[in-house]
Amino acid sequence: MKFLIASDIHGSKYYTEKVAERFKAEQADQLILLGDIYNHGPRNPLPEGYDPMGVASVLNGLAKKLTVVKGNCDSDVDTMISDFEFVSEAVIFDCGKKIFLQHGDRFCIDNLPKNCGDAFLYGHYHTGFIRRVGGLVVANCGSVSLPKGGTPNSYLVLENAELILKDIDGNEISRMKI
Question: CB of 10 within 8 A of CB of 33?
Answer without folding.
Answer: no
